[in-house]
Amino acid sequence: MVEMRKPIAVTEAIERVVAHVKTTGTEKVALGEAYGRILAEPILAKHDMPPFERSPYDGFAIRSQDSIGASGENRKAFTVIDHIGAGQSAKRGIAEFEAVRIMTGAPIPDNADAVVMLEQTVETATGFTLRKPFTSGENISARGEEAKNGEELIKSGSFIHPGTIGLLATFGYAKVFVAKKPIVGILSTGTELLEVEDELTPGKIRNSNGPMIAAQLVRMGLTTRSYGMLADDLDMCMETVKQALCETDVLITTGGVSVGDFDYLPAVYDRLGADVLFNKVAMRPGSVTTVAIAEGKHLFGLSGNPSACFTGFELFVRPVLLKMMGSENMYLPYAKAVLGEDFTKANPFTRFVRAIYESTLDGAIVRPAGFNKSSAVSSIARGNSIIVLPGGTRGFTAGMDVDVLLLGVDEGVDKWML
Amino acid sequence: MVEMRKPIAVTEAIERVVAHVKTTGTEKVALGEAYGRILAEPILAKHDMPPFERSPYDGFAIRSQDSIGASGENRKAFTVIDHIGAGQSAKRGIAEFEAVRIMTGAPIPDNADAVVMLEQTVETATGFTLRKPFTSGENISARGEEAKNGEELIKSGSFIHPGTIGLLATFGYAKVFVAKKPIVGILSTGTELLEVEDELTPGKIRNSNGPMIAAQLVRMGLTTRSYGMLADDLDMCMETVKQALCETDVLITTGGVSVGDFDYLPAVYDRLGADVLFNKVAMRPGSVTTVAIAEGKHLFGLSGNPSACFTGFELFVRPVLLKMMGSENMYLPYAKAVLGEDFTKANPFTRFVRAIYESTLDGAIVRPAGFNKSSAVSSIARGNSIIVLPGGTRGFTAGMDVDVLLLGVDEGVDKWML
């Protein structure tokens, strides 16, 4: 007799997996190693930015009061007493009708309170003349105009991208607190599996899920502890899973979670006394995806079918790993797009279709990425997104608006949109 | 007298930089190292996929001809002679009214041509009975239904993402030809610059562009050869640029490209006899961005202003590096979005505004990411996108549709959309 499982909705499944996540702790890394990590401290302005009054243009620093009354008929003459570039300082403050030639980024000399742009002056033997008055503060970048000392600029939990690195450098964060990376194990199960370098033999296929998941983890900046491949054998599975539970924070298995005669993961969860959060999700592909908690650790039992495995990782594993690292932006980014071709097969379960999303001047369009069974792997390779089609009795036709989840975007969003 | 430069349009500037790009050549890497690289060979199906007829379900393999005439009143009885899971093969082919219990992924036994799902059967002592006929091929995954031996599945020049890795693994690509990574040098110039770990001193700021660009390169999977920081000094600049030209494929400098009294890069290009593609672009920020070719290599002279530097990299450096690696998808992905707040300052030049893009169920919205001068760095850290506002005399108000370029997406698009 085949076991009957009760499917739960995708949204509920996601809520269950992210409900009890323990964070990984923090560590300090050099700025040069921080790209792609998750901030474990907010970025604070450690001083005003700019840290001093400076010139945003090439020009002359003057006292604005000396320009009062200047006009075409009443030109005011200034003597240039110094010449400074960025990183230099004037030798002394300026006095009445004195000026300093100043380049972009250089600090405003003492007593000066305006900058005259080069094109607003007429050169003389000792300086220049002006024909219009300037106001105090004109053409000056004020100290602290971008950020004030102590201000929180980026919150803890944010993804560190190149702009974040620039900001950290600005404020002298030579080292920065980031979330520790969780240790993630991968175990591929299935008597049919060969290694990538093996020749095909009858009835066998190469293990594509293991390398694929490893790459999904690399895309998240994470590394993998591989537990290789196992034939469908309960005792061997049990032993390896127990070992992995000691050595990893999260274990991902592929295969063995269905109700077939050689699917041993349910028995492994049982022997471990694991808390099975669900073992059937109302989704295609991947309805047999199972998630359990043992010793406080997530055990992700992904389907052995490549498309189902891929989708299960992105929907369930990714948010848990991100939340472990303190990120709130743990869900795949959402887009709405026009369906580019008919997709008429109706299905009672929510469908996740590997797809090619393209944004054009006329709007966004999305098309299924080809061969669409749960065993497919070519459509995962062609796709950059996943179309999400709600379950029900109807098909979908070209021109309809559909929901899309985008893949390969560095930082996600803080809400599951569907 | 200040040199007058003639600005060219952004689109023309991009056309000029990508016009004469030499590719980097190829190398072979292990599959485990291939994520994030650019394919230098197409992915071919090395065999039919699936490589053999197999069962997509748990069930029984039968000869469909034995089910002819089956009905509720005329049940057909089958004897189960074997029991196979994925990776196993039946000991012999089936004869009349025989069946093999078969699990998902297992090869169809000889003589069988249909699979009956478990729930369509009633168990008997030696097998099961059926009450409906099956057609030849029913519930069978045909050999080659996903891909035929020799078929090109993914073209050369594609970005290798996790789905690509899965496909490479499927077809036994234990090693794969990828584009060699270009060697990219970074040289930060400016007398005002301090190292990240330095204490601030009067008139100085820390070098944020160097670390930021290094991270922009890491985001592209590339590493950096750093030439450190130089004060504004023509001879020192000249010497370092000459050295870098020998050691790198591409050199990025920051600062020193304007028309200020201490901007020495134009003189360096002159002494090198470099072909200056442009030294003024009708864009804000980054109008002084200069690109030259010397000894067949691109010299990118980015502005020292962080926002200008960042934008110049994404618009000009990124496509060149991708094209060097054989990618056609060298431009930032495009999106259209509703402007979330007024942006009333008009400007004759095209503006690139660091922004926060968000896609919601009600559509996509984009907002400027705060303080918006070209010297800004906090808005780069807050942003995940760039709003592109055409130059002209008008401002832009909340609710208008605007063009957006998305940052942090793994693979771009093959057309510059603007």
TrEMBL record, chains A, B:
GO terms of molecular function: metal ion binding; molybdopterin molybdotransferase activity
Domain of life: Bacteria
UniProt keyword annotation of Metal-binding present: yes
Annotated MoaB/Mog domain residues: 185-323
Pathway assignment: Cofactor biosynthesis; molybdopterin biosynthesis
Keywords, comma-separated and alphabetical: Magnesium, Metal-binding, Molybdenum, Molybdenum cofactor biosynthesis, Transferase
Known cofactor(s): Mg(2+)
Protein EC: 2.10.1.1
Enzyme class (EC, first level): transferase
SMART domains from the UniProt entry: MoCF_biosynth
SUPFAM superfamilies hit by this protein: MoeA C-terminal domain-like, MoeA N-terminal region -like, Molybdenum cofactor biosynthesis proteins
InterPro entries referenced in this protein's UniProt entry, alphabetically: MoaB/Mog-like_dom_sf, MoaB/Mog_dom, MoeA-like, MoeA_C_domain_IV, MoeA_C_domain_IV_sf, MoeA_linker/N, MoeA_linker/N_sf
Any one Gene Ontology BP term: Mo-molybdopterin cofactor biosynthetic process
Reactions accelerated catalytically: adenylyl-molybdopterin + molybdate = Mo-molybdopterin + AMP + H(+)
Role according to the record: Catalyzes the insertion of molybdate into adenylated molybdopterin with the concomitant release of AMP.
Family stated for the protein in its record: Belongs to the MoeA family.
NCBIfam families recorded: Glp_gephyrin, molyb_syn
PANTHER family (alphabetical): GEPHYRIN, MOLYBDOPTERIN BIOSYNTHESIS PROTEIN
Protein name: Molybdopterin molybdenumtransferase
Organism in which the protein naturally occurs: Sporosarcina limicola
